[in-house]
Design brief:
83% of the residues lie in helices and 0% in strands. The chain is an all-alpha fold and 118 residues long.
Length: 118
């Protein structure tokens, strides 16, 4: 099972990127604009886009991506069943390494759900 505490990981990433966001504000504003444009609901709804983003995070073994996208999925009302169905595809396409990050995504999702319901 994952050793990451995803809520703390997000906090740490945000804190550590703070100075970078200031020193590279133009680039970071561009990144934020790209993210907003990409994730806005269109022909594909916002939840499906977040599931895709999380699938890429799992397949790229990015713990930070897992933390931020599971948070978004909880806010969008994603069910654990929907998450698990997507993770099954990740495991199918990426084998054992993706299975390890699927476990991490499940843990992060549950932590976000607990935080939202508290």
């Amino acid at each position: 099972m994952s050793t990451f505490e995803h809520l703390a990981l997000m906090k740490n990433i945000n804190a550590e990127l703070g100075p970078f966001r200031k020193s590279q504000s133009t680039a970071m504003q561009g990144f934020a604009a790209l993210a907003a444009a990409s994730m806005t609901a269109g022909l594909i709804d916002a939840k499906t886009k977040e599931l895709i983003a999380l699938a890429i995070g799992v397949s790229q073994h990015c713990s930070g991506c897992i933390a931020f996208h599971t948070k978004a999925l909880v806010k969008l009302g994603c069910s654990k069943d929907e998450l698990e169905e997507m993770l099954a595809i990740c495991v199918y396409m990426g084998g054992g390494p993706n299975l390890m990050y699927a476990a991490e995504a499940l843990k992060a999702f549950e932590a976000q759900q607990d935080k939202e319901s508290a």
